[in-house]
Amino acid sequence: MRLRTPLRRHQSRRYTGLVVGAVAVLSLAACTGSAEDAADDENSGSDSAPAAAAGSNDEEGDQVTIGFSAPAADHGWMAAITNNVRDLAEEYPDIDLQVAEGTNDVNLQISQVETFINDKVDAIVLLPFDGAAMTPVAIKAMEAGIPVINVDREFDDPNAARVTVLGDNYGMGVSAGQYVCEQAGGDKDAIVAEIAGIDSLPLTQDRSQGFEDALSECGLDVDARQAAEFTVESGEEVAANLLQAEPKIDFLWNHDDDQGVGVLAAIENAGRDEFTMIGGAGSANAMRAIQDDNSVLKATVIYPSTQGADGVKLARLLVQGKAMSDLVEVEVPRTVQLYAPVVTSDNVDQFIDSAFES
After folding, report:
1. Region labeled Disordered — which residues (predicted)?
2. Is 175 helix (H, G, I), strand (E, B) or coil?
3. Would you call 230 exposed, middle or buried from its count of C-beta atoms within 10 A (0-12, 13-18, 19+)?
4. Are the CB atoms for 145 and 139 separated by under 8 Å?
């Protein structure tokens, strides 16, 4: 029986109130002049461009000091988060970026945010090591009049952030599952395996739920599932165990391209090539393998490593009193959720330049 209801209900619950759903929405060319200014220009008979054409959110504005804190760069995706933030800040001479050293110590990250508050920065962009633990200090910053942009790992109180920038973990699972359904071509006997990340994390649970819901739409199930730890070593160990237990697989979804390096090593060691593998997060090495077309890896699902940079860009707009030009709304949205597209050989050239290295 095809179970359509859970997919629609889960998507509706997760996406209600989201204002934006794609990375492209952060291309922030904008008109910043007022209607009165435009009218003055028109009435003056001058040859100058109207305000709508003359202004841009990317033009230099008032100096903005932004504090940024994230976990330690002990993972390719996390390293890319901070690297992309630094690269973005270099493009804007009006951004004074203060980057705290990456840490997986919650108490140290709390003290970093307290330093930003004491220094009276204009905004704080924060990817918490632990969203719940960082919530009180984020609220403290907000109460001090410093807007907080929460990235990736959510606080447990909506009042702790002015803006939240998220990837789409449930959507990753949906995208991977829909790709499997398309490739299966109606074969309801296809054997589907899954190598997840850390099972105790909500992000892993969301990815698996999305995958399961999407597969149910074409009458498929997850026949074999094991969890790894988002590391190369755990990926290789778990994949070796799964391959030994499953003599035949048609599709394998691995949640994370960093641990996917180990997964692919195990597959090669086992001499298995009868199935199609789908990756997760969108690393550059995964995309190169897709381009080369010489392994079982044929696709990966994006989990953008641009989230921190997007947060900095939004912080700049907030402090400078600007909005997002592609929207009619005159304020920066409360929530921005980025899309989770599937990358294949057909579109890999579109994504590889912004991909992170595992």
Report:
1. 36-63
2. helix
3. buried
4. no
Give the type of residue at 287.
Answer: M
CATH architecture type of domain 169-302: 3-Layer(aba) Sandwich (3.40)
Q: Return d(Cα 273, Cα 238) in angstroms, integer.
A: 17
Q: Six-digit token pair at 350?
A: 């579109």
Residue keyed to tokens 């179970």: 3
Q: pLDDT tens for the chain, 358 residues: list them.
A: 333 333 433 443 333 333 334 333 333 333 333 333 333 443 333 333 333 333 489 999 999 999 999 999 988 999 999 999 999 999 999 999 999 999 999 999 999 999 999 999 999 999 999 999 999 999 999 999 999 999 999 999 999 999 999 999 999 999 999 999 999 999 999 999 999 999 998 899 999 999 999 999 999 999 999 999 999 999 999 999 999 999 999 999 999 999 999 999 999 999 999 999 999 999 999 999 999 999 999 999 999 999 999 999 999 999 999 999 888 998 999 999 999 999 999 999 999 999 999 8
Q: List, as one string, the DSSP characters of 227-264.
A: E--SSHHHHHHHHHHHHHH-S--SEEEES-HHHHHHHH
Residues 90 and 97: their CA atoms lie apart, in Å, by 9
Same fold, 22-30+56-166+305-337 and 169-302: yes
Distances (CA, A) of 323 to 52, 118, 320, 346, 358: 14, 27, 9, 34, 35
* Strand ranges inside 47-108, DSSP E: 64-69, 95-99
Q: What is the DSSP letter of 30?
A: -
CATH C-level class of 22-30+56-166+305-337:
alpha beta
Q: Name the residue among 56, 9, 76, 42 with its Cα closest to residue 300.
A: 76
- Residue 2 sits at φ, ψ, to 5 deg, of -90, 125
Query: Per this entry, what is the length of the chain?
Result: 358
> Could you state, in order of their start, the residue ranges of all structural domains in the chain?
22-30+56-166+305-337, 169-302
- What does the alpha-carbon distance between residue 138 and residue 147 come to, in Å, rounded to a whole number? 9
CB 258 within 8 A of CB 229: no
Q: Is 344 helix (H, G, I), strand (E, B) or coil?
A: coil
What pTM was computed for the model? 0.81
- Amino acid identity at 350: Q
